[in-house]
């Protein structure tokens, strides 16, 4: 019997089929496969997906405080500080004292950050299209709609 065969003589297909019905397994592995596309697409920009998400949140029409940015991303303050430290070190963002409240910092993109975010977003979108290529437009739209519905906060 081959190493991967089950006691019943199967080749592990039953286990794969069972796991393939579990939502957590499917979501985790879909995310891992998506990361395999997006990671290399963002590497030339010196960014990872989390850092690009921070840049996207900060690209709004007004500077945000570190806390506001963390809340919009759904991450804790400590993680946000670490992300901003890295992005500041790459000269993508700058921190400043708030003009309205000297006790807090605001964060905004530098010109370099704006240019890099725009180019990196195009690369991310292309990587997502590549990942989603096995699905037609209708299935892609349904997947995105379903995930938005599931991730909405109550």
From TrEMBL:
Pfam families: MarR_2 (PF12802). Keywords: DNA-binding, Transcription, Transcription regulation. It comes from the Bacteria. Residues 20-152 form the HTH marR-type domain. GO terms for molecular function: DNA binding; DNA-binding transcription factor activity. This is MarR family transcriptional regulator. It comes from Kitasatospora cheerisanensis KCTC 2395.
């Amino acid at each position: 019997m081959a190493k991967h065969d089950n006691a019943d003589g199967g080749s592990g297909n039953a286990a794969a089929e069972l796991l393939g019905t579990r939502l957590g397994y499917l979501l985790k592995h879909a995310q891992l496969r998506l990361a395999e596309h997006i990671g290399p697409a963002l590497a030339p920009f010196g960014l990872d997906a989390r850092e690009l998400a921070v840049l996207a949140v900060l690209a709004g029409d007004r500077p945000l405080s570190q806390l506001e940015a963390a809340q919009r991303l759904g991450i804790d303050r400590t993680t946000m500080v670490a992300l901003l430290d890295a992005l500041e070190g790459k000269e993508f963002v700058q921190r400043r004292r708030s003009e309205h409240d000297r006790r807090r910092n605001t964060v905004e993109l530098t010109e370099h950050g704006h240019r890099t975010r725009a180019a990196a977003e195009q690369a991310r979108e292309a990587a997502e299209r590549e990942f989603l290529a096995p699905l037609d437009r209708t299935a892609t739209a349904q997947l995105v709609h379903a995930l938005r519905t599931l991730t909405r906060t109550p």
